[in-house]
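How it folds
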Amino acid sequence: MPTGLWVLFITTAVVYFGLAHRVLDRMRLTDTQALIFLGLMVAGSFVDLPLVRGEVNLSVNVGGALVPLALAIYLLTRADTTRERVRAVLAAVATAIAIRIIGSLGSFDPPANNLMDPLWLTAIVGGAMGYLAGRSRRAAFIAGSSGVVLADVSHAVQVAAQGVRSDVSIGGAGVFDAVVIAGLAAVLLAEVFGESRERLQGGPRLGEDRPQALYQDEGVAEGSDTLSLSDEPGGQGEEDRRE
């Protein structure tokens, strides 16, 4: 079974048992919405929709491309400001460029001839770049997962332009694993490093819009002064609250 599917099954279990509620709340996703998207990614991973037939047989994988892009668009609509939306889109483009550059510098021979499987390298670069460019949990996921898909699209365009006879599935095959791992890794990095930096700098700032789901975690009783938690590391950015 592909690594990406194992990761999705584990993530689904974590969400189902309520262990990811805090992170999902900051991304403006409910447990039910997250489970729906995870289920669609699993089911869609087995479906390739043909786009072009010829010297280059081009198709798009539903679970590895269409569903992650749909989730990214949904998260963009939940963003608080235009600035945050623009930053997330630019972060996705920057992630795609970084993946393409790293890919051009390395060899894509069989894994036995490399120190690391190129697809794992893609996932790691996508996750790290998604966090660094996106910073917030929501933008990090958008950048990590969408960046891998965009890099795959650019590869497909390059193959078509060169007229190389091949079968290309955008978001399919091993790229599916990279999309899943990169998106989740970016969110995990944002959660771990963002939370650590926030605590080192004195914790979240006072405000009016702290997520209801976080009240019990911080011991804040209803009716008292609420806290606003900036999702961006270091407590920066009004647009990142409640992500």
